[in-house]
């Protein structure tokens, strides 16, 4: 599919003259898998030539990201400003001077952010970024001229996103526009767009809309959300309460705002352990759990989460829900694998969350606590995901081999 064309802008939009696009350009932004510094990106042209490197700073309260060209020249930093009503990111030159501010706000459907920048001539430029939940795209428009300066699109669903939470973004830049500036705004947009509220809204709409084909098999009701969604809502409420309590203290508690990832680990881990025990004891469900109707035996929570995430977030729909459950029922080895993975993620997440909460409560520096709280859980999840990937591949190869051998025995 060809990329949409953007016309040259009537007024140049640039902070760095060397990065002004002379023709329509495509940038590809890839979040780095398992980056220990967090929110690091590789930025290349459409033909694969690298032009910029964005490196996150480990244990940074402001989530500072350093932007360099390929000669390692430091162009600017991207960092979060705290204590704003709306999420705000700023771009600073190497001397710490603010050259651009990106402030988010939410619309009823989609999201919006406004970037106020000072260009290379000292003139203020206001760029408006609007996104849509349905097409996962964003448009950047010059407020004064109404001209489109860039379009951002995100790949809908990849293995990187499933296991690591990393995305790939394609960005079309209009001639006359600074590619480095657009890349910075795209990185900011990616971070803003990954908010819990935004993701929750997307998921809710997919399950609620009348044409939805990804609801659990047990009901046609718009309000019959799946197991993962109810847990998502609970996690959202818990995180919101913690952050509100932390920010309303005088002075605001940085330590409290470091807790949400650890709390979520405990929530998810405890849920998996409890449901795993119910499944092991062959307890029957008093109510429907995703596609499994009331009265059937509980199944490991990790199986239900896989079903819900792939069916809804992956867009595979009810066909996947049915296929996964048939797969589970048909293979003893697959059932054992799912049970083992449930304990692996359940006990692992629960223990990591409890240990981290204890550390965050006792460590002296609140700044260091914030960095730990928002970095360690992602590192842990990345390590667990890598182990899971190799584990599952090995188990499925063994299952395929033994399945073929058992079929030969049956034929004889």
TrEMBL record:
Keywords linked to the UniProt accession: Membrane, Transmembrane, Transmembrane helix
Statement: the UniProt record of this protein carries the keyword Transmembrane: yes
UniProt xrefs under Pfam families: LOR
Transmembrane segments annotated in the record for this chain: 179-200, 227-247, 259-279, 343-363, 369-392
Keyword Hydrolase set for record: no
PANTHER family: AMINO ACID PERMEASE_ SLC12A DOMAIN-CONTAINING PROTEIN
Family per record: Belongs to the LOR family.
Entry protein name: Tubby C-terminal-like domain-containing protein
Organism: Aspergillus welwitschiae
């Amino acid at each position: 599919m060809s990329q949409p064309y953007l016309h040259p802008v009537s007024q140049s939009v640039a902070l760095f003259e060397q990065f002004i696009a002379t023709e329509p350009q495509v940038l590809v932004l890839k979040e780095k898998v398992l980056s220990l510094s967090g929110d690091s990106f590789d930025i290349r042209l459409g033909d694969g030539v690298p032009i910029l490197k964005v490196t996150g700073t480990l244990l940074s309260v402001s989530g500072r990201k350093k932007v360099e060209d390929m000669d390692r020249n430091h162009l600017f930093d991207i960092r979060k400003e705290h204590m704003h009503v709306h999420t705000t990111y700023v771009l600073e030159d190497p001397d710490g001077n603010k050259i651009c501010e990106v402030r988010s706000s939410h619309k009823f459907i989609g999201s919006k952010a406004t970037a106020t920048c000072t260009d290379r001539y000292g003139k203020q430029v206001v760029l408006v970024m609007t996104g849509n939940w349905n097409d996962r795209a964003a448009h950047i428009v010059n407020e004064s001229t109404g001209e489109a300066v860039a379009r951002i699109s995100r790949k809908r669903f990849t293995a990187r996103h499933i296991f690591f939470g990393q995305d790939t973004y394609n960005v079309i830049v209009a001639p006359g526009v600074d590619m480095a500036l657009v890349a910075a705004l795209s990185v900011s947009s990616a971070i803003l767009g990954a908010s819990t509220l935004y993701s929750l809204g997307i998921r809710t709409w997919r399950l609620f809309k009348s044409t939805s084909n990804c609801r659990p098999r047990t009901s046609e009701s718009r309000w019959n959300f799946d197991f993962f969604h109810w847990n998502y809502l609970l996690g959202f409420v818990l995180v919101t309460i913690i952050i509100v309590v932390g920010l309303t203290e005088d002075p605001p508690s940085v330590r409290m705002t470091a807790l949400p990832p650890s709390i979520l680990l405990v929530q998810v881990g405890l849920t998996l352990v409890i449901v795993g025990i119910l499944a092991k004891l062959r307890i029957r469900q008093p109510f429907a759990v995703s596609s499994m109707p009331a009265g059937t035996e509980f199944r490991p929570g990790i199986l239900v989460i896989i079903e819900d995430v792939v069916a809804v977030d992956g867009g595979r729909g009810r066909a996947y829900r049915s296929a996964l459950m048939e797969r589970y029922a048909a293979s003893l080895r697959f059932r054992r694998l799912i049970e083992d993975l449930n304990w692996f993620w359940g006990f692992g997440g629960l223990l990591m969350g409890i240990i981290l909460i204890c550390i965050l409560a006792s460590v002296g520096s609140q700044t260091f606590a914030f960095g730990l709280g928002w970095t360690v859980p992602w590192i842990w999840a990345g390590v667990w995901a890598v182990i899971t990937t190799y584990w599952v591949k090995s188990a499925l190869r063994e299952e395929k081999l033994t399945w073929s051998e058992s079929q030969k025995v049956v034929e004889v």
